[in-house]
Write a structure and sequence with these properties.
- It contains 7 helices and 11 strands.
- A 7-stranded mixed β-sheet has the order 4-5-6-9-8-7-11.
- α1 packs across α3 and α2 crosses α3.
- It is globular and about 65 Å long.
Length: 283
């Protein structure tokens, strides 16, 4: 397996010629090459990576340099180290969704994935805020998903999701089809799109009449709004999700910042209004 020249040598005839790399540490260059292979699918989810010695020989660097690059990828949850077995490209699962991408924890300290009830899934033209947040063309088509998510059988989140239709063809079709509880697993299995990181903005909002009805609350009740953009390995935004949460039985715990260029798992508090106001997908 060879996708590039040795980092310490000259390009081969069939190798990719690098852009100016400057004097950045070799382990970062190895990490970037591996990240590129994760992004283009040449190292798909679940596959085992070559050994550290094999990668060191391929890239013309020391085993320690490769190990440091892999350690950073593991810290970003892009690869998984398995004792005695090797290093594997991370793939989505309910456990990964729970511990990496679901920030609500029960007040008893127990973390559980919520169940989901689909309200609607429709195709429409992207609104201006959606084209900005997801870097879409003005005439792009998006898929708008609305659902209610429950914790311990009690409705706790009113959730809206917008994704580009071009990336997720036939998602939710035919009309009336259900969607799985953990969408990131679906994105990966069916469409080959792996969510690597998210950026979240949180704010306090008042429940609208429709949200209050969905969550069995009084209109105007306090909700926690989590506004999230999800990114692929190479930093491309592919999902905008707004969750408005009743925190009477749970609390928010911020996700660790991974430092991934383009979209770390990062928390951004915002002023206590309706989050992004008119930018937010409307219930």
């Amino acid at each position: 397996m060879r996708d590039m020249e040795k980092l310490t040598g000259q390009p081969t005839a069939d190798a990719e010629v690098p852009s100016a790399l400057g004097f950045r540490p070799l382990y970062l260059q190895v990490k970037e090459r591996l990240t590129r292979r994760l992004a283009d699918g040449s190292l798909p989810p679940g596959v085992q990576l070559p050994t550290e010695l094999e990668l060191a020989a391929e890239y013309g660097v020391s085993q320690g340099t490769v190990r440091k690059a892999l350690d950073e990828l593991a810290a970003q949850n892009l690869v998984v180290r398995r004792q005695g077995k090797g290093t594997f490209v991370a793939s989505h699962s309910p456990d990964r969704s729970l511990f990496q991408f679901f920030p609500l924890i029960g007040n008893n300290g127990i973390r559980r994935l919520p169940s989901s009830r689909l309200l609607s899934c429709r195709y429409r033209r992207a609104r201006s805020a959606e084209t900005r947040r997801l870097a879409l063309a003005a005439d792009a088509t998006v898929i708008h998903i609305r659902r209610v998510r429950s914790l311990n059988t009690k409705p706790a989140l009113a959730e809206e999701i917008v994704v580009p239709a071009v990336l997720f063809p036939d998602l939710g079709l035919p009309p009336g089809s259900d969607l799985p509880n953990t969408l990131y697993d679906l994105y990966e299995r069916i469409y080959g799109i792996s969510i690597a990181s998210v950026v979240e903005r949180v704010s306090a909002v008042a429940a609208s009449a429709s949200e209050a009805s969905l969550l069995s609350l009084a209109p105007g009740a306090a909700l926690l709004q989590i506004d999230r953009i999800a990114y692929t390995v190479d930093g491309k935004p592919v999902e905008w999700r707004v969750s408005r949460c009743d925190t009477s039985q749970c609390h928010y715990q911020s996700l660790p910042a991974n430092g991934l260029a383009g979209g770390p798992n990062t928390l951004h508090p915002v002023k206590a209004d309706r989050g992004l106001g008119s930018e937010s997908p409307s219930m």
